Structure formats: structure tokens, C-alpha cells
Amino acid sequence: MLTFTIRRLILSVPTLLFISLAIFLLLELSPGDPMAQVPLTVPPDVKEKMRQALGLGQPWHIRYWKWLVQFFWVEPLVFVDWLTGSGFSANYQRMISWQTRGPVMALVVQSLPQTMWVVAMSYVVGVLIAIPIGIYSAYRHYSIFDQSGTFITMVGFSIPPFFTGPLMIVIFAVQLGWLPSTYNTVHKVLDWDSFVIQLKQMVLPIMVLSLQTTAQISRYMRSSMLDNLKQDYVLTARAKGLSEWIVVMVHALRNSMIPVVTVIALGIPSVFGGAIITENVFKVNGLGYQLLIALFASDIPTVMTFTFIFAVLIVFFNLVADILYGVLDPRIRYE
To answer: Which of 173, 228, 265, 320 has its CA 20 to 30 A from that of 314?
Structure first.
């Protein structure tokens, strides 16, 4: 397992480099000019100097190389300086956002906690709801609960977040007035009352994101459980007189979780992608919200960095899925 993990980590390096190059070239071909938002009163020669200051006059391969150095060398040095109080990164140029004129990683550090509050919590909630639903639907397949769950999950999986988000706002914020329609990013939890406010403003975005997670994972869980409940080892366990709880929750569940764990691990980056729309609907100042703002402003360094972070998440959780696959199933051996 250790050899497999090391080999996958080594192979992920050229994969990420190729992905970063593809993202950079796509952004180069995309329309948009970062100088478009500059007022018309600014003289053309001043605009040209601003363009040169942003590095737009350099060839694309030089700008790509500078981005690689900044992302993989300069920013880690900045992190080391922050931890140790040293000054290794003092003489290096950091990645600068064309829109804010500040470090791009400062935006990441500022936005990541907001995204994690919403995305991580929604995924945990979705998984905790989906697994029991899938297990019970498989155990009572073709029952009213199973058929109702199938209908609800298919509807939930089919409706996109940009529809469910406003729908939740209309029902729970406008009509009923139970929950706030927007997320207050600057809200601080200091006591019980402020904690309750934080929970209330998290409910709607978490509901929207966890809906699709629950729909997808519960279907995989049901299908996997149905397949394993028909296997000979389950019949043997029942013939030995084991209780239904032990048969279902110990013997069948362990093998059923093997493909489901892969779906769970690979679904985490997709939730971050879905959060791009959800964060904008509820005004959550997270990674997705900042990414769309950068796209509208043609802020290539910010778009490049945020998009590459999503790519790193996909590669990382692919590796996590493979490792968990081997842990759950001892029959699997990586040569």
C-alpha cells in the first residue's frame, strides 16, 4: 500500500502540470481584457504601462513559468515565513490579483473558511442522511419507503442548485420568514445567540448542496447493498443464526461500502464546483463567489489559481478513494 501511494503521488505531479498548462492555455484563448474596467479617461499610454506592469506584454510561456514558480515555490515560502517568522520570501514576487492588486493566496485564505463552513458541513450532512436511506431502501426494496425515496432522490438529483436555491429562499426566507436569505460573512460567533444566528444562516445553503449529495450517494448505497444482500456469504451468515442487524450492518455493509466510498471521495470536488452557484445565490463570500467575480473581471491569475486548486482537490481525492478502496477490501493488493 505504501509503494502504491508513493507511486500515485509521483504520477500526480505530471498530471497536475498538464492540467495547469491546459487551464492556462484555455484562459489565454478566452475573451476579455483586464483593462476593460479602467475608466475611459485614462490615456492610452497609461493603460499600456498598466498592462506592462501586469506582465501582459510578455510571451505566454514566460507568464506560465512565472505562475508555476509563484504557486509551487514562492507561496510555500510565504507559508514557511508565516509559521517561523523568517524572511525567505522577502525578495520574491507573489501572485498578484489584477482586480484587487493584492496576493491571490490572501483571497484563498480569506475565502476558504467560508467555503468549508458551508461545503464541508453540507457534504457531511448529505452522507450521513444518504447512507441510512440507501441501506433501508435496499433492505426493504420495492416498499413504499423505497419507491418514495427513489422518486424524491431522482427529483433532487435532477434539479440544479440555481433553481433549488431561489426556491428555498422564496419558501423559507420570504414566505415563512424562518431563515435569512443571505449569508453574513462578517458574522462572528461569540456566544450562544450568535451561534444560533450562524446555524440559521447556514441552513439554506447546506440544504441546497446536501440535496444532490444525498440523492446521488443514497442511490449508489441502495444498489450496492441490494447486490451484496443476495450473495452467498449473507445467506451463510443467516443460516448460522446471526441476527439481521449483524448480517446487514456488519457483513453486507462492509462490502457494500467499497464502491460507495469511491463515490463519496470523488464527489467532494464536485460539491466544491456546485458551491460556485450556491455561494453566489446566498452571497457566501467563499472560493466559488470569488472565482465568479474574478471571471467577470478577466482576472487571470486569480481564476488560474482557484481553478487549479479545484484540480488539485480532484487528484487528491482520487488518491484517497483508491487508498480507502484497498483498506476496506483486504483482497485487493497493489503490486
So the answer is: 228
- The parent domain of residue 185 ranges over 113-296
Rounded to 5 degrees, what are φ and ψ at 261?
Answer: -60, -40
In angstroms, the Cα distances linking 316 to 63, 125, 257, 274, 309 are 26, 22, 20, 18, 10
Q: pLDDT per position in the chain (335 positions), as tens?
A: 667 677 777 888 888 888 888 888 888 777 666 666 666 666 777 766 766 666 666 777 888 888 888 888 888 888 888 888 777 777 777 778 877 777 888 888 888 777 777 778 888 888 888 888 888 888 888 888 888 877 877 777 777 777 888 888 888 888 888 888 877 777 777 778 888 888 888 888 888 888 878 888 888 888 888 888 888 888 888 888 878 788 888 778 878 887 788 788 777 777 776 677 777 788 777 787 888 888 877 778 888 888 888 888 778 877 777 777 666 666 655 55
Q: Is residue 270 part of a domain?
A: yes
Residues 53 and 136 in one domain: no
Q: Quick check: is 308 in a domain?
A: no
Same domain assignment for residues 75 and 129: no
CA atoms of 154 and 219, how far apart (whole Å): 9
Domain count, the chain: 2
Same domain? For 177 and 125 the reply is: yes
Determine contact, residues 295/303, Cβ cutoff 8 Å: yes
